[in-house]
């Protein structure tokens, strides 16, 4: 890479990193007391509690793409507060089989791919992967190749809670996890999926 190209790549990465930090700051602010589901306000919970069962499950599937998880959380309504909802979320998640987790993984795009849908989950994925915007071509190519190698090794999409991460940090996580054995990687995947589920559940209730 020539010196001007290198400077350009560094500037693009700096812009992407700045945008990622701004997105992460907005996400942290949204979860502070007094700003949404964490505040214990009743209105968002009343909205979720009042939905017909099928509608509630469809909304919850945007948070975690497992039918078993969405069905369990929807069936536990009404919830008196955010803490009760989060407890139900975690209980339902802990009960998921690996097949349920794979169902949820199938609803996530590859890291580096930009979902084009207009549904909630697609919009959230675009925001969560803000760190890949402006990344240089070498990093994007490495992410693409790494995704393929990961899928060949483990049989499912590489999942990381991308909120607040730059493309280089996502790539570093991917490369590190390629060295995991299957049991270790399944534990990691569950942890990343739960983090995403928590973030999306907050967003669902903040902006119904």
Walkthrough of the structure:
One of its GO terms (biological process) is urate catabolic process. This protein has 208 residues and is an all-alpha fold. The chain has one domain: UraD-like (Orthogonal Bundle), CATH 1.10.3330.10. It has 10 helices and no strands. The chain has helices spanning 3-30, 42-50, 53-61, 67-75, 82-94, 98-105, 120-128, 137-154, 167-177, 182-206. Helix 3 (53-61) packs across helix 4 (67-75). The protein is globular, with a radius of gyration of 18 Å.
As a percent range, the share of helical residues equals: 55-70%
From N to C, what is the helix and strand string? Answer: HHHHHHHHHH
- Write down the oligomeric state: single chain
Principal-axis shape equals globular
Poorly predicted runs are: 4-12, 19-42
CATH topology: UraD-like
Within CATH, the superfamily carries the name Oxo-4-hydroxy-4-carboxy-5-ureidoimidazoline decarboxylase
Determine and state the CATH class: Mainly Alpha
Number of strands: 0
- State the separation between the terminal residues, measured CA to CA: 47 Å
Strand content: under 5%
Overall radius of gyration: 18 Å
Number of helices: 10
The average pLDDT value, as a whole number, equals: 84
Largest sheet: none
Count of all domains = 1
Q: Structural class from helices and strands?
A: mainly alpha
- Which architecture name does CATH use? Orthogonal Bundle
